[in-house]
Design brief:
Elements: E1 2-7, E2 10-13, E3 18-26, E4 28-39, E5 46-51, E6 57-59, E7 67-72, E8 77-82, E9 91-101, E10 106-110, E11 114-119
Parallel strand pairs: 2-11
Antiparallel strand pairs: 1-3, 3-8, 4-5, 4-9, 5-6, 7-8, 9-10, 9-11
Length: about 120
């Protein structure tokens, strides 16, 4: 079984920064994609940023230029550096990972989420 656990959310003023971390653990043979999604009440979960095992990245339009996703493959960890935060960035940020388990079966897992609140 594979799990991911997020950390680093909190309350910040507009214009401030936060760094989210997510560590994967368990029966991991490989991790392909890791990423961050955001959900606000009444709306569907949406992509913020994803990164492949090779380092290719993709961002939601409003995150591009302000957020940076990175990963430490040796530590099975993904990070999201969020700068110039805006109140519209508020939401629950969930970590995602997919890959192969030690049994060579595919997995995709989600974390519990961490709250990010940006005050104006």
């Amino acid at each position: 079984q594979v799990q991911v656990v997020e950390s680093g959310g909190g309350l910040v003023q507009a214009g401030g920064s936060l760094r989210l971390s997510c560590a994967a653990s368990g029966s991991i043979f490989s991790i392909n994609t890791m990423g961050w999604y955001r959900q606000v009440p009444g709306k569907q979960r949406e992509l913020v940023a994803i990164i492949s095992s090779g380092g290719s990245t993709n961002y939601r339009g409003s995150a591009r230029g302000r957020f940076t996703i990175s990963r430490d493959n040796a530590q099975n960890t993904v990070f999201l550096q969020m700068n110039s935060l805006e109140p519209e960035d508020t939401g629950v940020y969930s970590c995602y990972a997919d890959g192969l388990s030690n049994l060579r079966s595919p997995y995709n897992v989600w974390g519990q989420g961490t709250q990010v609140t940006v005050s104006s």
